[in-house]
Amino acid sequence: MPIEKFTGVHEDPFESYRDDPALHALPERMTRANIPRPEALLPPREQAFIYAMTLAKNPARVLEIGVCHGGTSRLFHWALEDLGRPLPEGVHVGIDPEPKITVEWDELTRCRLIVGTSPDKLAEATEAAGGAFDLVFVDGDHSPEGVARDLAGVCDVASPGAWILCHDWYNQWVGEGIRLALARRLPLEETGIVTQTENRGWYRPTDSEVSWGGIGILRRLPGAS
Questions:
Q1: C or N terminus of the chain, fewer CB within 10 Å?
Q2: Is 185 left (phi over 0), alpha (psi -120 to 50) or beta?
């Protein structure tokens, strides 16, 4: 019996994606996700997750609290650029009181930088983005009250159902801040930790060993205010 050859769409399993504006990130355009970048200050697994999460959720607007060198902002830019939403959608806004940008920020055409603190600058960030945020990355003030304050502010500028990624979930102060936010009945639900890269080291200000790393996800409850 002769063996039939696949024809039509079987010759290109991605053919049905090519005209879909929400699925522009084809395999040949995704190689950047596999390039760890030291400017992101994140382990490679966390960098890959940031890119993949953005790609999967296809957000119209991304908020980043704590930009530092701009490496994570660049990951967001790459994913948003690969998704190809026509501007003014598919944008990223970062907030940092003292950014130390070492990436080529001018090339990150989907990124905006606001110098200042969160939550003070969140209203300005929302205006710059053109609306509420669908995806948020929180990596700013690591004190318990600072984390809780950031999360309270994020609830005011995030879309119902938005995904909120919290970096350094393993850190004891960040973890305490997340618990504070949840105890204060903010419209958030915990979905768990997704990148289990725990880094332990000696922290000179407290003369003690502390944990860093890990990304956990909260979700802005739909319909809550």
A1: N
A2: left
